[in-house]
Amino acid sequence: MKVLDIMNGLANGIMTVLLRSPLDGLVSRRVVLITVSGRRSGRLYTTPVNYVRDGDIITVISRRNRTWWRNLRGGAQVTVRVRGKDLKGVAEVVVEDKEAVAKALLALHPRYSMERAARRAQDRVLVRIKVA
User: Fold this and answer.
1) What is the pTM of this model?
2) Each residue of 79-124: pLDDT tens digit?
3) Which domains does the chain possess?
4) Rg (CA), the chain
């Protein structure tokens, strides 16, 4: 296992604990917990992710090499912990539309230039979650 993977796992664990605690307000403006069910195993996976919310749509960007989002292909039920509240929703993955991914990256990172967002969009996927 690479050092970077170990550090990422540790950071994800700390964020998960923080987002489930009374101190969630420290990070919940930019980070949510998404819980997805494994397609084959049925096992629940919870991952902290950066997000942007527009009404009942939550947009998440993930690196393509991550695995959690693959369980959402074709649409899937998810739970998203947003600012201390668990919301149910339906998530869909957008892989092909690099322009949509770049625009979402700009919303997540307002300091990015369009060129930087377009470069980063090449190895990213966008997940749109419609919450109830």
Assistant:
1) 0.80
2) 999 988 999 999 999 877 888 889 888 988 889 999 999 999 998 9
3) 3-131 (2.30.110.10)
4) 14
